[in-house]
């Protein structure tokens, strides 16, 4: 009867499920937003979320995942800091029949070791940034410096590939220096300072491509400290679409960003709902949108809009 129907309906969701989340850390504004959005998405679904911050260390993530397995959680979310070294611990989760969903980064492990992943097409993000620069410099010679993400992470590998392949096909744009800034503002500033010193104060640098906005914001500070104008003397293009890159655009100090949604958990929880309650697993990875924003796209409005989105 109705009671039976209601009781099955009540279970066609994740109410009361215990889900562990091994988060990388809080290295960037985007990462902090992903954490707050994940917590609010869990709250909305009545999930008991167990949160573990790894301070960017893979061994802390592996420890946290082992803790979740010992606790007998219903599912595990992992944002994998680097793409290698996961086979063993993912095998242990599989042994324990605990589904794993990857968020925002990929792993080299075989796909049968996790239920699915929710991430952007990171090669495409690099290509979109590259195409923006190609269109913007319109055939003029342009020496670019590149601030790479965390060494060995899938976004750093893929965003480098997408951008370098795009600009590598032109005769006028050349990547003259490339170094990791570990996705942080501080490191991005420090590495950009090094690039400027190595390039005669930056006169020969036409653009900086940063694998995330936080490193771009650090680079903007370094460019200003060197007496140059970011956004005009040196073009600034990056990825994430965090509020602070839009306020830099309003000030004319940044030029373009490729948006990355901080809401990877919503699709992840939907996939877990279908799997735990209906036994169905999504076909393959769940790919989120990559949209270009420039100074022409109402940056103040975009800043205001994001302030309400968990940033
Ligand atoms: O772009 C950056 C964070 O894994 C795609 O990690 C994510 C990246 C994001 O540090 O801000």
TrEMBL record:
<dbReference type="Pfam" id="PF13407">
    <property type="entry name" value="Peripla_BP_4"/>
</dbReference>
<dbReference type="InterPro" id="IPR025997">
    <property type="entry name" value="SBP_2_dom"/>
</dbReference>
<dbReference type="GO" id="GO:0030246">
    <property type="term" value="F:carbohydrate binding"/>
</dbReference>
<dbReference type="InterPro" id="IPR028082">
    <property type="entry name" value="Peripla_BP_I"/>
</dbReference>
<keyword id="KW-0732">Signal</keyword>
<protein>
    <submittedName>
        <fullName>ABC transporter substrate-binding protein</fullName>
    </submittedName>
</protein>
<comment type="similarity">
    <text>Belongs to the bacterial solute-binding protein 2 family.</text>
</comment>
<dbReference type="InterPro" id="IPR054837">
    <property type="entry name" value="YtfQ_transport"/>
</dbReference>
<feature type="domain" description="Periplasmic binding protein">
    <location>
        <begin position="19"/>
        <end position="278"/>
    </location>
</feature>
<dbReference type="GO" id="GO:0030313">
    <property type="term" value="C:cell envelope"/>
</dbReference>
């Amino acid at each position: 009867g109705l009671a039976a129907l209601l009781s099955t309906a009540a279970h066609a969701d994740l109410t009361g499920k215990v889900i562990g989340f091994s988060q990388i850390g809080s290295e960037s504004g985007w990462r902090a937003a992903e954490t707050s959005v994940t917590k609010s998405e869990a709250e909305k679904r009545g999930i008991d979320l167990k949160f573990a911050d790894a301070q960017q260390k893979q061994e802390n993530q592996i420890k946290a995942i082992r803790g979740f397995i010992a606790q007998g959680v219903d599912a595990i979310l992992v944002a994998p800091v680097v793409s290698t070294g996961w086979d063993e611990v993912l095998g242990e989760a599989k042994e324990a029949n605990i589904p794993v969903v990857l968020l925002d980064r990929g792993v080299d492990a075989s796909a049968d070791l996790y239920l699915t992943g929710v991430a952007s097409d990171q090669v495409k993000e690099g290509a979109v940034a590259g195409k923006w620069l190609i269109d913007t410099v319109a055939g003029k010679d342009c020496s670019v410096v590149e601030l790479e993400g965390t060494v060995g992470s899938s976004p750093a590998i893929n965003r480098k590939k997408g951008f370098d392949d795009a600009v590598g096909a032109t005769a006028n744009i050349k990547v003259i220096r490339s170094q990791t800034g570990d996705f942080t503002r501080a490191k991005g500033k420090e590495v950009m300072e090094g690039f400027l010193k190595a390039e005669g104060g930056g006169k020969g640098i036409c653009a900086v491509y940063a694998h995330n906005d936080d490193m771009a914001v650090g680079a903007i500070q370094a460019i200003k400290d060197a007496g140059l104008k970011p956004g005009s003397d040196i073009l600034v293009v990056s990825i994430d679409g965090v509020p602070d890159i839009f306020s830099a655009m309003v000030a004319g100090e940044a030029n373009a960003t490729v948006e990355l949604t901080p809401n990877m958990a919503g699709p992840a929880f939907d996939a877990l709902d279908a799997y735990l309650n209906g036994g169905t697993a999504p076909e393959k990875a769940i790919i989120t949108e990559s949209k270009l924003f420039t100074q022409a796209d109402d940056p103040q409005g975009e800043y205001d809009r994001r302030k309400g989105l968990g940033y």
